[in-house]
Amino acid sequence: MEGTESIDVSVVLPTYNESKNIIPLIESIHRSLSGQRKEIIVVDDDSPDKTWEIAQQVVGKDVKVIRRTSDKGLVKSIQRGIDEARGKYVVWLDADLSMPPEIIPSLVAQLEKYDVAVGSRYVKGGKDLRPALRLVTSRMINIAANLILNFKVLDYTSGFIAARKTVFSEMSLADSAYGEYCIEFLYSAGKKGYAIKEVPYSFIDRLEGTSKTAGTFFSLLRFGWVYFKRIVALRFRR
């Protein structure tokens, strides 16, 4: 691998049971960042389907695999990847192919002017193409975040983020049960004065594997309640 100073973009992929998606995703990232000095960091929570083992097939092609066997969790995996990242810019996204790697260059390009770039479903030009129940739940969470926090970000629950690595010398990701860490990260970044830019994209439902958050009406209601509590706590935090 190239030296630390030569890496432009580090792409962090937190994974759990993504064996069918991980190779196509890595290949798509390579195509999207062709010509860029990059590294892809797969941080796997010891997947029973051996996602980590499959990802290791492409180690040496700018790919690093971290297999975590304890203290697991989405946010801890992302943070581990950020800590290991050697690039000037850090990107992270879900590994289920719902977020198009083709958007990564557009996100990174915004970091010439902004500190954080957000892949956004709800800014003009963005779309959320998931089933109605999941779409409505997500929209309600983001409307609540906009009303209670501010309208500086329209897609607070994006999970598709690019940021200058220097941002993380002052910030780290707060742990969370689902993806509510993203609300806190974006809100806190804005409060600290970091400039944030949203980039539209079309979000689709996964084609392979099982969603970590999808489920019945009641499970989505519980999931939404967790997000809402984090939003309120952020608003009144001193």
Structure overview:
By secondary structure, this protein is α/β, with parallel strands linked by helices. The protein has a single domain (4-236), classed as Spore Coat Polysaccharide Biosynthesis Protein SpsA, Chain A (Alpha-Beta Complex). The chain has helices at residues 22-32, 51-55, 74-84, 104-110, 132-148, 181-191, 217-236, and strands at residues 9-15, 38-44, 63-67, 89-92, 116-120, 127-128, 161-164, 196-200, 202-203. A seven-stranded mixed sheet has the order 3-2-1-4-7-5-8, sandwiched between helices. It has a two-stranded parallel sheet with strand order 6-9. α5 (132-148) runs parallel beside α7.
Set down the secondary structure blueprint.
Elements: E1 9-15, H1 22-32, E2 38-44, H2 51-55, E3 63-67, H3 74-84, E4 89-92, H4 104-110, E5 116-120, E6 127-128, H5 132-148, E7 161-164, H6 181-191, E8 196-200, E9 202-203, H7 217-236
Gist?
This protein is α/β, with parallel strands linked by helices.
